[in-house]
Design brief:
5-stranded parallel beta sheet; alpha+beta; 6-stranded antiparallel beta sheet; 28% helix; single chain
Length: 416
Protein backbone atom coordinates (compact mmCIF):
# COMPACT_ATOMS: atom_id res chain seq x y z
CA UNK A 1 0.00 0.00 0.00
CA UNK A 2 0.92 3.67 -0.32
CA UNK A 3 0.59 5.94 2.71
CA UNK A 4 0.59 9.74 2.98
CA UNK A 5 1.69 11.41 6.23
CA UNK A 6 0.75 15.08 6.62
CA UNK A 7 3.10 17.25 8.69
CA UNK A 8 6.72 18.24 9.02
CA UNK A 9 7.88 17.78 12.64
CA UNK A 10 9.47 15.16 14.85
CA UNK A 11 6.12 13.50 15.54
CA UNK A 12 5.58 13.06 11.80
CA UNK A 13 9.10 11.69 11.32
CA UNK A 14 8.35 9.03 13.96
CA UNK A 15 5.09 8.16 12.15
CA UNK A 16 6.87 8.02 8.78
CA UNK A 17 9.55 5.74 10.23
CA UNK A 18 6.96 3.35 11.64
CA UNK A 19 5.20 3.14 8.26
CA UNK A 20 8.51 2.67 6.44
CA UNK A 21 9.15 -0.44 8.55
CA UNK A 22 5.82 -2.01 7.59
CA UNK A 23 5.87 -5.17 5.49
CA UNK A 24 2.80 -4.04 3.55
CA UNK A 25 3.88 -0.49 2.68
CA UNK A 26 5.36 0.06 -0.77
CA UNK A 27 5.72 3.85 -0.54
CA UNK A 28 5.52 6.48 2.20
CA UNK A 29 4.87 10.10 1.20
CA UNK A 30 5.35 13.03 3.60
CA UNK A 31 3.74 16.39 2.89
CA UNK A 32 5.62 18.60 3.27
CA UNK A 33 7.89 16.52 5.52
CA UNK A 34 11.41 17.57 6.48
CA UNK A 35 14.86 16.84 5.11
CA UNK A 36 15.63 14.32 7.84
CA UNK A 37 12.85 12.05 6.54
CA UNK A 38 14.63 11.47 3.22
CA UNK A 39 15.34 7.79 2.76
CA UNK A 40 12.21 6.85 4.70
CA UNK A 41 9.68 8.87 2.70
CA UNK A 42 9.29 10.76 -0.55
CA UNK A 43 8.86 14.43 0.33
CA UNK A 44 5.89 16.17 -1.28
CA UNK A 45 6.09 20.00 -1.36
CA UNK A 46 2.45 20.62 -0.41
CA UNK A 47 1.59 22.63 2.73
CA UNK A 48 -0.43 20.95 5.50
CA UNK A 49 -3.24 23.48 5.06
CA UNK A 50 -3.59 23.02 1.27
CA UNK A 51 -6.44 20.52 1.56
CA UNK A 52 -7.32 20.40 -2.13
CA UNK A 53 -3.68 19.97 -3.17
CA UNK A 54 -3.17 17.17 -0.65
CA UNK A 55 -6.39 15.39 -1.65
CA UNK A 56 -5.55 15.69 -5.35
CA UNK A 57 -2.10 14.19 -4.67
CA UNK A 58 -3.57 11.32 -2.66
CA UNK A 59 -6.04 10.52 -5.43
CA UNK A 60 -3.56 10.84 -8.29
CA UNK A 61 -0.99 8.63 -6.53
CA UNK A 62 -3.48 5.97 -5.39
CA UNK A 63 -2.71 6.54 -1.71
CA UNK A 64 -4.31 3.79 0.39
CA UNK A 65 -4.91 6.12 3.34
CA UNK A 66 -3.65 9.39 4.83
CA UNK A 67 -2.46 10.00 8.39
CA UNK A 68 -2.65 13.55 9.79
CA UNK A 69 0.06 14.53 12.30
CA UNK A 70 -0.50 18.16 13.40
CA UNK A 71 -3.49 19.74 15.10
CA UNK A 72 -4.06 22.75 12.83
CA UNK A 73 -5.31 20.90 9.71
CA UNK A 74 -7.46 18.69 11.94
CA UNK A 75 -9.02 21.72 13.62
CA UNK A 76 -9.70 23.25 10.19
CA UNK A 77 -11.46 20.15 8.85
CA UNK A 78 -9.01 18.22 6.66
CA UNK A 79 -10.61 14.88 7.59
CA UNK A 80 -14.06 16.10 6.51
CA UNK A 81 -12.59 17.38 3.22
CA UNK A 82 -10.85 14.09 2.39
CA UNK A 83 -13.92 12.05 3.25
CA UNK A 84 -16.05 14.25 1.03
CA UNK A 85 -13.65 13.36 -1.81
CA UNK A 86 -14.07 9.65 -1.02
CA UNK A 87 -10.53 9.31 0.34
CA UNK A 88 -9.52 7.24 3.38
CA UNK A 89 -7.95 9.27 6.18
CA UNK A 90 -7.23 8.59 9.85
CA UNK A 91 -8.09 11.41 12.24
CA UNK A 92 -10.96 13.29 13.87
CA UNK A 93 -13.52 15.42 12.08
CA UNK A 94 -13.48 19.20 12.55
CA UNK A 95 -16.30 18.89 15.09
CA UNK A 96 -14.48 16.17 17.06
CA UNK A 97 -11.15 18.05 16.95
CA UNK A 98 -12.79 20.72 19.13
CA UNK A 99 -11.75 18.55 22.08
CA UNK A 100 -8.32 20.10 21.52
CA UNK A 101 -9.20 23.21 19.50
CA UNK A 102 -11.32 24.68 22.31
CA UNK A 103 -10.36 24.10 25.93
CA UNK A 104 -13.74 25.51 26.95
CA UNK A 105 -15.49 22.83 24.82
CA UNK A 106 -13.38 20.11 26.46
CA UNK A 107 -13.99 21.39 29.98
CA UNK A 108 -17.74 21.66 29.41
CA UNK A 109 -17.79 18.10 28.01
CA UNK A 110 -15.96 16.81 31.09
CA UNK A 111 -18.27 18.69 33.42
CA UNK A 112 -21.39 17.35 31.71
CA UNK A 113 -20.20 13.73 31.70
CA UNK A 114 -18.48 13.71 35.12
CA UNK A 115 -14.99 13.15 33.77
CA UNK A 116 -12.52 14.15 36.53
CA UNK A 117 -10.64 17.40 35.84
CA UNK A 118 -9.60 20.62 37.57
CA UNK A 119 -12.27 23.13 38.62
CA UNK A 120 -12.36 26.06 36.18
CA UNK A 121 -14.02 29.20 34.81
CA UNK A 122 -13.83 30.75 31.32
CA UNK A 123 -13.41 34.47 30.58
CA UNK A 124 -13.37 36.81 27.60
CA UNK A 125 -12.75 40.02 29.56
CA UNK A 126 -9.77 41.02 31.68
CA UNK A 127 -11.38 42.46 34.82
CA UNK A 128 -13.60 39.46 35.74
CA UNK A 129 -10.62 37.15 35.07
CA UNK A 130 -8.40 39.19 37.41
CA UNK A 131 -11.11 39.21 40.09
CA UNK A 132 -11.35 35.42 39.84
CA UNK A 133 -7.56 35.05 40.18
CA UNK A 134 -7.55 37.27 43.27
CA UNK A 135 -10.35 35.21 44.80
CA UNK A 136 -8.63 31.88 44.16
CA UNK A 137 -5.00 32.87 44.74
CA UNK A 138 -1.89 31.12 43.40
CA UNK A 139 -0.66 28.75 42.16
CA UNK A 140 -3.25 28.83 39.39
CA UNK A 141 -3.31 27.84 35.71
CA UNK A 142 -4.16 30.17 32.80
CA UNK A 143 -4.84 28.64 29.37
CA UNK A 144 -5.51 30.16 25.97
CA UNK A 145 -8.75 28.56 24.77
CA UNK A 146 -7.51 27.73 21.27
CA UNK A 147 -4.44 26.20 19.66
CA UNK A 148 -1.13 27.78 20.68
CA UNK A 149 1.52 25.23 19.62
CA UNK A 150 1.85 23.90 23.16
CA UNK A 151 2.76 27.32 24.57
CA UNK A 152 -0.64 28.65 25.62
CA UNK A 153 -0.59 27.23 29.16
CA UNK A 154 0.89 29.27 32.02
CA UNK A 155 1.26 27.62 35.41
CA UNK A 156 1.41 30.81 37.48
CA UNK A 157 3.13 30.62 40.87
CA UNK A 158 1.91 34.11 41.87
CA UNK A 159 -1.22 36.17 41.31
CA UNK A 160 0.89 38.75 39.45
CA UNK A 161 2.14 36.14 36.99
CA UNK A 162 -1.42 34.90 36.38
CA UNK A 163 -2.74 38.45 35.83
CA UNK A 164 0.12 39.17 33.40
CA UNK A 165 -0.78 35.99 31.48
CA UNK A 166 -4.43 37.05 31.24
CA UNK A 167 -3.44 40.50 29.94
CA UNK A 168 -1.04 38.93 27.43
CA UNK A 169 -3.88 36.86 26.01
CA UNK A 170 -6.97 39.07 26.28
CA UNK A 171 -5.44 42.54 25.89
CA UNK A 172 -2.25 42.04 23.88
CA UNK A 173 -3.45 39.08 21.78
CA UNK A 174 -0.20 37.19 22.34
CA UNK A 175 -1.78 34.06 20.87
CA UNK A 176 -4.07 35.84 18.40
CA UNK A 177 -7.65 34.61 18.26
CA UNK A 178 -6.62 31.47 20.20
CA UNK A 179 -6.34 33.65 23.31
CA UNK A 180 -9.54 35.67 22.84
CA UNK A 181 -11.06 33.43 25.51
CA UNK A 182 -9.14 32.05 28.49
CA UNK A 183 -9.74 29.13 30.81
CA UNK A 184 -8.52 29.64 34.37
CA UNK A 185 -8.38 26.54 36.50
CA UNK A 186 -7.18 25.25 39.84
CA UNK A 187 -3.62 24.03 40.10
CA UNK A 188 -3.42 20.28 40.55
CA UNK A 189 -0.43 18.68 42.26
CA UNK A 190 0.76 15.22 41.35
CA UNK A 191 2.63 13.10 38.82
CA UNK A 192 1.77 13.75 35.17
CA UNK A 193 1.60 11.24 32.35
CA UNK A 194 0.35 11.03 28.77
CA UNK A 195 -2.25 8.41 27.87
CA UNK A 196 -2.78 8.07 24.12
CA UNK A 197 -5.28 5.78 22.39
CA UNK A 198 -6.19 4.87 18.83
CA UNK A 199 -9.95 5.30 18.42
CA UNK A 200 -12.10 4.22 15.47
CA UNK A 201 -15.87 3.64 15.34
CA UNK A 202 -16.06 3.42 19.13
CA UNK A 203 -13.22 0.88 19.39
CA UNK A 204 -10.38 2.02 21.71
CA UNK A 205 -6.82 0.71 21.51
CA UNK A 206 -4.78 2.20 24.38
CA UNK A 207 -1.03 2.76 23.98
CA UNK A 208 1.62 2.46 26.71
CA UNK A 209 1.79 5.61 28.81
CA UNK A 210 4.65 8.10 28.64
CA UNK A 211 5.81 11.23 30.44
CA UNK A 212 7.22 14.35 28.83
CA UNK A 213 9.12 17.27 30.31
CA UNK A 214 7.57 20.63 29.40
CA UNK A 215 9.90 23.06 31.14
CA UNK A 216 12.90 24.31 29.20
CA UNK A 217 15.63 23.68 31.76
CA UNK A 218 16.90 21.04 34.18
CA UNK A 219 14.91 20.47 37.35
CA UNK A 220 11.69 21.37 35.53
CA UNK A 221 12.57 25.07 35.61
CA UNK A 222 12.09 27.81 33.04
CA UNK A 223 9.27 28.52 30.60
CA UNK A 224 6.87 25.92 29.25
CA UNK A 225 7.81 24.49 25.86
CA UNK A 226 6.28 22.05 23.41
CA UNK A 227 8.29 19.37 25.24
CA UNK A 228 12.01 18.87 25.91
CA UNK A 229 12.04 15.09 26.07
CA UNK A 230 9.96 12.06 27.01
CA UNK A 231 10.16 8.46 28.09
CA UNK A 232 8.04 5.31 28.17
CA UNK A 233 7.07 3.37 30.24
CA UNK A 234 6.51 5.45 33.38
CA UNK A 235 7.43 3.13 36.27
CA UNK A 236 6.28 5.48 39.04
CA UNK A 237 2.67 5.38 37.80
CA UNK A 238 0.97 2.23 39.11
CA UNK A 239 -0.99 0.04 36.69
CA UNK A 240 -4.08 0.60 38.84
CA UNK A 241 -3.93 4.34 37.97
CA UNK A 242 -3.55 3.51 34.26
CA UNK A 243 -6.57 1.19 34.44
CA UNK A 244 -8.60 3.83 36.30
CA UNK A 245 -7.68 6.42 33.67
CA UNK A 246 -8.94 4.14 30.92
CA UNK A 247 -12.21 3.32 32.71
CA UNK A 248 -13.03 6.75 34.22
CA UNK A 249 -11.57 9.11 31.60
CA UNK A 250 -10.76 7.63 28.18
CA UNK A 251 -13.81 5.40 27.69
CA UNK A 252 -16.25 8.02 29.05
CA UNK A 253 -14.69 10.70 26.81
CA UNK A 254 -15.14 8.56 23.69
CA UNK A 255 -18.73 7.75 24.69
CA UNK A 256 -19.41 11.42 25.49
CA UNK A 257 -18.23 12.52 22.06
CA UNK A 258 -20.57 9.96 20.48
CA UNK A 259 -23.45 11.15 22.65
CA UNK A 260 -22.79 14.77 21.62
CA UNK A 261 -23.03 13.85 17.93
CA UNK A 262 -19.31 14.44 17.37
CA UNK A 263 -17.86 10.89 17.40
CA UNK A 264 -14.08 10.85 17.78
CA UNK A 265 -11.87 8.86 15.42
CA UNK A 266 -8.08 9.15 15.39
CA UNK A 267 -5.54 9.45 18.19
CA UNK A 268 -7.04 10.71 21.45
CA UNK A 269 -4.37 12.14 23.73
CA UNK A 270 -5.24 12.53 27.40
CA UNK A 271 -2.80 14.56 29.49
CA UNK A 272 -3.34 13.19 33.00
CA UNK A 273 -2.21 14.13 36.50
CA UNK A 274 -2.36 11.55 39.27
CA UNK A 275 -3.68 13.49 42.27
CA UNK A 276 -4.50 12.35 45.80
CA UNK A 277 -8.08 11.94 44.54
CA UNK A 278 -7.05 9.81 41.57
CA UNK A 279 -6.27 10.63 37.93
CA UNK A 280 -7.64 13.89 36.50
CA UNK A 281 -7.51 15.40 33.02
CA UNK A 282 -5.15 18.30 32.38
CA UNK A 283 -6.01 18.46 28.68
CA UNK A 284 -7.18 16.46 25.69
CA UNK A 285 -5.47 16.58 22.30
CA UNK A 286 -6.88 15.31 19.03
CA UNK A 287 -3.62 13.79 17.77
CA UNK A 288 -0.33 12.21 18.79
CA UNK A 289 1.72 14.13 21.35
CA UNK A 290 5.13 15.51 20.48
CA UNK A 291 7.62 14.31 21.78
CA UNK A 292 5.65 11.39 23.26
CA UNK A 293 5.12 9.79 19.84
CA UNK A 294 8.88 9.45 19.38
CA UNK A 295 9.18 7.21 22.47
CA UNK A 296 5.83 5.37 22.36
CA UNK A 297 5.40 4.44 18.70
CA UNK A 298 8.80 2.66 18.40
CA UNK A 299 7.61 0.29 21.16
CA UNK A 300 4.89 -1.00 18.79
CA UNK A 301 5.83 -4.48 17.58
CA UNK A 302 2.67 -4.95 15.49
CA UNK A 303 2.62 -3.75 11.87
CA UNK A 304 1.47 -0.11 12.09
CA UNK A 305 0.10 0.14 8.55
CA UNK A 306 -1.73 -3.18 8.76
CA UNK A 307 -3.29 -2.10 12.04
CA UNK A 308 -4.55 1.25 10.70
CA UNK A 309 -5.76 -0.35 7.48
CA UNK A 310 -7.75 -2.84 9.57
CA UNK A 311 -9.28 -0.03 11.63
CA UNK A 312 -10.30 1.94 8.55
CA UNK A 313 -11.82 -1.23 7.07
CA UNK A 314 -13.75 -1.90 10.30
CA UNK A 315 -11.76 -5.05 11.10
CA UNK A 316 -10.50 -5.99 14.57
CA UNK A 317 -6.78 -6.15 15.29
CA UNK A 318 -4.66 -7.09 18.31
CA UNK A 319 -1.89 -4.62 19.09
CA UNK A 320 1.35 -5.79 20.69
CA UNK A 321 4.01 -3.68 22.39
CA UNK A 322 7.62 -4.17 23.46
CA UNK A 323 8.55 -4.21 27.16
CA UNK A 324 11.72 -2.22 26.44
CA UNK A 325 12.10 1.33 27.71
CA UNK A 326 12.75 4.26 25.37
CA UNK A 327 13.98 7.70 26.45
CA UNK A 328 14.29 10.66 24.08
CA UNK A 329 16.00 14.02 24.53
CA UNK A 330 15.10 17.11 22.47
CA UNK A 331 17.90 19.19 20.98
CA UNK A 332 16.66 22.79 20.74
CA UNK A 333 18.02 25.99 19.28
CA UNK A 334 19.43 28.54 21.74
CA UNK A 335 16.65 30.87 22.89
CA UNK A 336 13.84 28.33 22.59
CA UNK A 337 10.93 28.65 23.40
CA UNK A 338 11.55 32.32 22.55
CA UNK A 339 13.25 33.69 19.45
CA UNK A 340 15.76 31.27 17.91
CA UNK A 341 18.39 32.18 15.33
CA UNK A 342 18.09 29.74 12.44
CA UNK A 343 20.77 28.36 10.13
CA UNK A 344 23.36 27.16 12.64
CA UNK A 345 25.07 23.97 11.52
CA UNK A 346 24.47 20.89 13.67
CA UNK A 347 27.47 18.78 14.72
CA UNK A 348 28.29 15.57 12.85
CA UNK A 349 25.35 13.33 13.74
CA UNK A 350 27.12 10.23 12.42
CA UNK A 351 29.20 10.25 15.63
CA UNK A 352 26.08 9.27 17.59
CA UNK A 353 25.88 5.49 17.83
CA UNK A 354 23.11 3.09 18.87
CA UNK A 355 20.56 5.89 19.09
CA UNK A 356 17.62 6.90 16.92
CA UNK A 357 17.64 10.45 15.55
CA UNK A 358 14.25 11.96 14.80
CA UNK A 359 14.30 15.22 12.84
CA UNK A 360 11.93 18.07 13.68
CA UNK A 361 13.34 21.41 12.49
CA UNK A 362 16.33 20.68 10.26
CA UNK A 363 17.47 21.48 6.74
CA UNK A 364 20.03 19.55 4.73
CA UNK A 365 22.82 21.77 3.38
CA UNK A 366 26.04 20.94 1.53
CA UNK A 367 27.80 20.99 4.93
CA UNK A 368 25.28 18.82 6.77
CA UNK A 369 22.07 19.52 8.68
CA UNK A 370 21.31 22.98 10.03
CA UNK A 371 18.78 23.98 12.69
CA UNK A 372 15.69 25.66 11.24
CA UNK A 373 13.37 25.85 14.22
CA UNK A 374 12.99 25.76 17.99
CA UNK A 375 13.01 22.02 18.54
CA UNK A 376 15.51 20.61 16.05
CA UNK A 377 16.03 16.93 16.85
CA UNK A 378 15.08 14.23 19.29
CA UNK A 379 17.75 11.67 20.12
CA UNK A 380 16.47 8.47 21.74
CA UNK A 381 17.86 5.19 23.03
CA UNK A 382 16.39 1.95 24.29
CA UNK A 383 17.18 -0.01 27.45
CA UNK A 384 15.83 -2.66 29.75
CA UNK A 385 14.90 0.17 32.15
CA UNK A 386 14.43 3.94 32.01
CA UNK A 387 17.76 4.36 33.79
CA UNK A 388 19.58 2.23 31.20
CA UNK A 389 17.92 4.06 28.29
CA UNK A 390 18.84 7.36 29.96
CA UNK A 391 22.50 6.32 30.31
CA UNK A 392 22.57 5.11 26.70
CA UNK A 393 21.32 8.38 25.22
CA UNK A 394 23.29 10.80 27.41
CA UNK A 395 26.56 8.90 26.93
CA UNK A 396 26.16 9.54 23.20
CA UNK A 397 25.04 13.18 23.45
CA UNK A 398 28.12 13.93 25.56
CA UNK A 399 30.45 12.76 22.80
CA UNK A 400 29.92 15.86 20.64
CA UNK A 401 29.76 19.63 21.11
CA UNK A 402 26.35 21.26 20.62
CA UNK A 403 27.29 24.88 19.90
CA UNK A 404 24.19 27.10 19.38
CA UNK A 405 21.93 24.30 20.66
CA UNK A 406 20.96 23.01 24.09
CA UNK A 407 19.25 20.08 25.75
CA UNK A 408 18.12 19.08 29.21
CA UNK A 409 20.49 16.73 31.01
CA UNK A 410 17.85 15.20 33.31
CA UNK A 411 15.09 13.73 31.13
CA UNK A 412 13.63 10.81 33.05
CA UNK A 413 14.66 12.05 36.48
CA UNK A 414 11.23 11.39 37.92
CA UNK A 415 11.29 7.69 36.99
CA UNK A 416 11.80 5.47 40.03
Amino acid sequence: MKVLVIGRGGREHAIVRQFSRSSVVEQVYAAPGNDGMQGEAELVPIDEMNFSGLADFAEANHVSFTFVGPEQPLAEGIVDYFQQQGLKIFGPSKAAAQIEGSKAFAKELMKKYNIPTAAYETFTEVEPAIAFIRTKGAPIVVKADGLAAGKGVIVATSEGEAIAAVKDMLEDAKFGSSGSQVVIEEFLAGEEFSFMSFVQDGQIYPMPISQDHKRAYDGDRGPNTGGMGAYSPVPQIPQSAVDETFERIVKPAVRAMEAEGTPFNGVLYAGIILTGEGPKVIEFNARFGDPETQVVLPRLTSDFAQFLSSLLNKESYKLEWSDQAILGVVIAGEGYPGAVKKGHLLPDLSKLQQVEITHAGTKLTSDGFSGEGGRVLLVSAIGTSIQEAQENVYSQLGRISWNHFFYRSDIGWRAK
